[in-house]
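Researcher: Let's run the pair from yesterday's discussion. Sequence first, then tokens, for each.
Model: Starting with the first of the pair.
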Amino acid sequence: MASPAAVLLVRTMLFTVWSALLAIAGLAALGGPVTGAWIRTHGFWLGLAALCAGQFVFMAAVADRWFPYADRRMVALAEGGVFVGLLISVGGFVKGLW
């Protein structure tokens, strides 16, 4: 059986890599070279969604575990704001499909 500290360390590494990949993909879609009509049309919304998803994954899966006694109102405000940004960007992407 693994120790709780080892489990926390492994979870932290996995979720940090996952959130970093999402954020990097989002930044690449937002500021990368635009080479196709489809990405020109939908790249902004996809990039924003991936960037918000990466931030939300990191805050919910890593920061909440490392700082369990953080002020819950501030945590809810930060995570809620990023989640609203994620919903808006997904909505903008879906709206752009029609």
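Model: Moving on to the second of the pair.
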Amino acid sequence: MFSVTHFRSEFINQRTATIIRKVTMVQFMLVTILTAMGVGLFNAPFWLAPLFITIGYVVGYSHNGEIVLKRIAAYLTVWMRQLIGMPQIINIQADWESVRLRAEQQQMRGAFTATVIVE
């Protein structure tokens, strides 16, 4: 019997759902899409199909809870931003925490009452 709870749990666990043993749904979709694009759309020879399958399997692999394709995309984004000289994307929350911590330390030492030095 199909229930809403079953559907909800399957929907939440869709990223890690396995289609064939040791092949996740993400890997299966990437293998299918890359092979179809390579052979079908770009007219690559059929003997390159195993290469597209391997690439799809590898970039869909989950390493430390993160899909390899996302890490590669983030690395390429940072590299391209450095290459064209655009400013680096920073973590504002971490910067704010360091400024707040520094201000609290200055107040505890009694150096300044309410002045915060931001570099």
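Researcher: Give me one sentence on the second I can quote.
Model: The chain has two domains: 4-88, 90-119.
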